[in-house]
Design a protein that fits this description.
It contains four helices and eight strands; from the N terminus they run βαβαββββββαα. By secondary structure, it is an alpha+beta fold. Strands 1, 2, 3, 4, 5, 6, 7 and 8 form an eight-stranded antiparallel β-sheet that branches. A hairpin with a 5-residue loop joins β6 and β7. It is globular, with a radius of gyration of 16 Å. The two termini are 19 Å apart.
C-alpha cells in the first residue's frame, strides 16, 4: 500500500481494476439520509465529523457542486483523486493518492450512496480491500433554504485494516484530521474565487 515512488498511471489503473473485482457491499454505517451516522459502532471503529459554512446563496451552492464533481475537495497538494474523470455515481471507484512523510499510497473506495437534489448533493464511499483503512466516508453539500448558507459536511467511520496500519495509527489519525481541515479550507477558497494551485 505504501511506496517510495509515485505509482505510474498504469499501476493506478491496474489497482483500480483489481479493486473493481471485489464485491460491492451496501453501506454499513453512513447513508445520505441518516443524519449524523450511527450512535454506536463496532469495536475499534472511530467516528469523525466536521462541518463548515463555505459560502452563501444558490450560485455558491452551484459552484460547490461543480467543485465536488471535479474532486476539488481532495485537491490539497498532498492528496488528489488519481482517476479525476470519475463520476459521482453508485458503484464508481475512487482512487485517492496521498504523498506524506516521503511515502506514496493509493487508497481505493467505492461510492455506495449518493444524493443529487436541489438543496443537497454528495455521496458516501466505502473502502475496498485496496485501502489502508476499513470504513466509510460521507461528503455532503447542503443549501439552507432559509439562511442561504452553503455547508460542507465530512463524516467518516473507520479503523485500520492491517497490522502495519495499526502500527502507524497515531500518524494516520493526524492525517485524517489534517485532511478534514485542509478539505474544508480548499472548498471555502474555491467558492471565494481564490486562485489555488496545490500541485502534486
Amino acid at each position: 500500500m505504501f511506496r517510495l515512488t509515485q505509482p505510474s498511471a498504469t499501476a493506478i489503473e491496474n489497482q483500480i481494476v483489481a479493486a473493481g473485482l471485489s464485491p460491492a457491499p451496501p453501506p454499513r454505517f453512513l447513508r445520505m439520509d441518516n443524519g449524523q451516522g450511527p450512535s454506536s459502532l463496532p469495536d475499534l471503529f472511530v467516528r469523525d465529523f466536521s462541518e463548515s459554512c463555505i459560502g452563501h446563496g444558490a450560485a455558491a451552492f452551484g459552484k460547490a457542486r461543480r467543485a465536488f464533481r471535479s474532486w476539488t475537495m481532495f485537491d490539497l497538494g498532498w492528496a488528489r483523486v488519481a482517476n479525476s474523470a470519475a463520476i459521482i455515481q453508485l458503484g464508481q471507484l475512487v482512487a485517492v493518492e496521498i504523498r506524506a512523510l516521503g511515502l506514496w499510497s493509493l487508497n481505493i473506495s467505492r461510492i455506495v450512496d449518493a444524493a443529487d437534489e436541489p438543496h443537497r448533493f454528495g455521496f458516501v464511499y466505502a473502502t475496498t480491500a485496496l485501502h489502508v483503512e476499513e470504513g466509510e466516508e460521507r461528503f455532503l453539500l447542503t443549501l439552507d433554504p432559509d439562511s442561504g448558507d452553503v455547508r460542507y459536511t465530512l463524516e467518516a467511520v473507520s479503523r485500520p485494516r492491517s497490522r502495519l496500519a495499526w502500527l502507524g495509527y497515531p500518524v494516520a489519525r493526524a492525517f485524517q484530521h489534517r485532511f478534514a481541515r485542509d478539505s474544508h479550507l480548499r472548498m471555502r477558497r474555491e467558492l471565494e474565487g481564490e486562485v489555488v494551485r496545490p500541485g502534486f
